[in-house]
Write a structure and sequence with these properties.
12 strands; 8-stranded mixed β-sheet; globular
C-alpha cells in the first residue's frame, strides 16, 4: 500500500490574518498542464509538497524511477545513486532520508541549477528528499518534501 502526500487544507477562520492552514502547495510532475496529465501525475505520486509557491521543485531519480515510483532492484546490486536536480532560488538545506533517518545533508547556495548525486547505503526501502530555505538570520523555513521513491527487491 502506497500513501502519497499532498498539500493544502480548507480553513474557514474569519478575522484571522496570520493563519497557518491552507498554505501548503502540491507541486505535480506531469507531461503537460492538461487536467488529465495532472491527475495522472497525482495518482502516480509524482508530486511534492511545498509551504509556498516560491519553493524550488526538485526532480529526484534513482535509475528510471522518480518520486512515487517503486524501483525493483536486484538483491545483489551493490549501490544505487540518487540524483537530485533543482534550481536554488535562495540558500537552502538539502536533506535525504531513508527508513533509518537522515542519510545526507548539504547546504546549497544560489545558482541557476544544482545537481547532487548521492550513493545510497544498501537495504533502502524508500528515499525522500527535503529542502528547507534559509532566512536572513539562518533560520530554516519554507519546507519542501517529495513523495518517496520506494525500493523493493526483485526475486
Amino acid at each position: 500500500l502506497k500513501v502519497y502526500i499532498t498539500g493544502g487544507s480548507d480553513v474557514h477562520e474569519h478575522g484571522t490574518s496570520n493563519r497557518s492552514y491552507g498554505n501548503g502547495r502540491t507541486m505535480i510532475y506531469a507531461n503537460s498542464m492538461r487536467s488529465e496529465d495532472l491527475i495522472k501525475g497525482l495518482h502516480a505520486g509524482h508530486n511534492a509538497v511545498a509551504a509556498s509557491g516560491s519553493s524550488t521543485f526538485a526532480e529526484i531519480n534513482i535509475k528510471d524511477a522518480m518520486m512515487g515510483d517503486t524501483l525493483l532492484v536486484d538483491p545483489f546490486e551493490e549501490a544505487l545513486v540518487l540524483t537530485i536536480q533543482m534550481v536554488i532560488k535562495v540558500p537552502s538545506l538539502l536533506r535525504v532520508f531513508n527508513q533509518e533517518g537522515c542519510i545526507f545533508e548539504e547546504r546549497c547556495e544560489l545558482g541557476l541549477s544544482h545537481e547532487v548525486s548521492q550513493i545510497l547505503p544498501k537495504h533502502n526501502t524508500f528515499v525522500i528528499v527535503e529542502l528547507w530555505q534559509y532566512d536572513f538570520d539562518n533560520t530554516l523555513y519554507n519546507p519542501y518534501f517529495t513523495n518517496p521513491i520506494f525500493i523493493d527487491k526483485k526475486y
